[in-house]
Amino acid sequence: MDLNTIFTNQRTGNNPRTKASRTDFQRDFDRIIFSSAFRRLQNKTQVFPLPGSVFVHNRLTHSLEVSSVGRSLGSIIGEFIHDHFIHDLNDDSQNFYLHNLGNVIAAACLCHDIGNPAFGHSGEDAIASYFDRNEVDLKSKFHEKEWSDLVNFEGNANAIRVLAQQQQGKDAGGTQLTLTTLASIAKYPCEAIAKKKGVLHRKKFGFFQNEKDIFLQIASGTNLISESQDPYIFKRHPFVWLVEAADDICYNIIDMEDAHRLGIVSTADCKNLFYELVKSETDDISRVERKLDSISNENEKISYLRAKVINALINKSVELYKSNLSLIFDGNLDKGLLDIYKSENKTLQDIEQFSIEKIYNHRAVVEIENAGYNVMYELLDHFIPSILKSTEARKSYDKKALKLLPKQFFYEEGSDYQKVLGVVDFVSGMTDNYATDLYRKIKGIDIGMTM
């Protein structure tokens, strides 16, 4: 792999370069921060329903923390690549790896969940199952690859659409990020029809048919290794493992801390699990013990241990990235960095198993997943039958339903596939509260004028 050709400051939308004090990759970060799609993550469920007085993480705070971890990973690996491959790097590449890889990973981490619907993964399931459950009525309206997109709806593919597609009446290129940042979030760089369980880069899919040309531009601009052209399958970009590791580090650990604050997990259980992981990765556990003894507040003890765990996992991820460098550069590493570590560290396995049993299957989590599934399903069912009818065949109730669809999501002149994607854009972009409020209104549960 040529390290000089796997990054570019070219953006979607083919905009000319402008002079600025910030680098192109710092500008990516800022564009995401100021985007409406990023702001909406503030009211999208991470794991727990937002309970009011006890603050837990939402998609936005999770993304900010992942970005912080990602910046550290990118900066450390960028410096390593600069120092160890300096004779292979041109001047621009030396500057990029030494000063900008951290910015790329931070920006990619910031938007890694931007395509996720409301209500966590149940929102994704609701969208996919809507089409699956209505296959008899709907499948004939779409080509095979289009239908595969819909019945396998996926937040990773939707992120590329949210960030790069041109909505009705808006500028070309979407958020107009660099192709490098977009390549860094493409965990599954293949078409939906190429999904294959057990294969890391094909476990899910990375782009809809509507954005295929955009993704091919990303692949070309960052020299993704092609595996197949029919269907399109690419190897992962080397930066993807860093973004994935940052996400895995945060959600494995932060969900445990949130559960502790909510009283779902006892202080003893959380402390013991965190302590054992820190102990397995430090040569001076006595220093950690002295610090813990000096803290009397239980939440603060857990916060301190959480910070130590995250630092340990960052160091381990860096070590694993370096030791698997050739496989990563060739796109052939078949596990995520944290999955490799999990296979050799019993405590991290225990944290994952504990989280599955005590957190992800907790009644409050399951309730919000069930509620979210039904809300999202019913919203799709309110709009999709109407949008698929010809203008002549639409009844009064169809026209009233479509009045609620904002103009940027209304692709009246497009194909059935594009019309449906517009509705999916609208519904998947909703916050938890907005989706719930709209559901209650169209179902007649809440009646009255609100602004």
TrEMBL record:
Keywords: Hydrolase. The keyword Hydrolase applies. SMART domains: HDc. SUPFAM superfamilies: HD-domain/PDEase-like. Residues 1-18 have a biased composition (Polar residues). Residues 1-21 are annotated as: Disordered. Residues 59-252 form the HD domain. CDD domains: HDc. Gene3D superfamilies: eoxyguanosinetriphosphate triphosphohydrolase domain-like (1.10.3550.10), Hypothetical protein af1432 (1.10.3210.10), putative deoxyguanosinetriphosphate triphosphohydrolase like domain (1.10.3410.10). GO terms for molecular function: dGTPase activity. InterPro entries: dGTP_triP_hydro_central_sf, dGTP_triphosphohydrolase_C, dGTPase, dGTPase-like, HD/PDEase_dom, HD_domain, PHydrolase_assoc_dom. One of its GO terms (biological process) is dGTP catabolic process. This is dGTPase. It comes from Epilithonimonas bovis DSM 19482. The lineage of its organism: Bacteria, Pseudomonadati, Bacteroidota, Flavobacteriia, Flavobacteriales.
